[in-house]
Design goal:
single chain, alpha/beta, Rossmann fold
């Protein structure tokens, strides 16, 4: 089973940026953990701070992979185009947020992705990615 993990802007700074909100672990370290623990999956990882690159990656994997885990980060609240890309592909997608976006600033409560995702995991830290992987283990392909 092929699962793509796609992270949006500023998530390349995990472990350095606002550790009180996002924790002290880098995503690369966490991704290595996921690869070891879930070796039955073929996992890929992509991160970009550029909206168009995220859309290109969703389109690239969205017809070939069995699932996508997407943390659109700041583009969650601003990018209609990212939401449109999610709606356009056939791979099921789980939207993940490290922080609880519904407990933060008012503008963060709007997601242009959520309505097009199979589900949303928010506020459980990096564990949210692992829970999304577990969701995919339950799907019957």
């Amino acid at each position: 089973m092929k699962i793509a993990i796609i992270n949006g802007p500023n998530l390349n700074l995990l472990g350095k940026r606002e550790v009180d909100i996002y924790g002290g672990e880098s995503f690369e370290g966490f991704f290595n953990y996921l690869q070891q623990k879930y070796s039955k999956f073929e996992l890929s990882y992509f991160q970009s701070n550029i909206e168009g690159e995220l859309i290109n990656e969703i389109q690239r994997v969205g017809y070939e992979y069995d699932g996508i885990i997407l943390n659109p980060a700041g583009y969650t609240h601003t990018s209609v185009a990212l939401g449109d890309a999610v709606a356009a592909v056939t791979a099921p997608l789980v939207e993940v947020h490290i922080s609880n976006i519904f407990g933060r600033e008012e503008f963060r409560k709007l997601s242009h992705v959520s309505a097009k995702a199979k589900g949303v995991i928010s506020g459980l830290g990096l564990k949210g990615y692992e829970l999304a992987l577990l969701y995919f283990t339950e799907l019957k392909f």
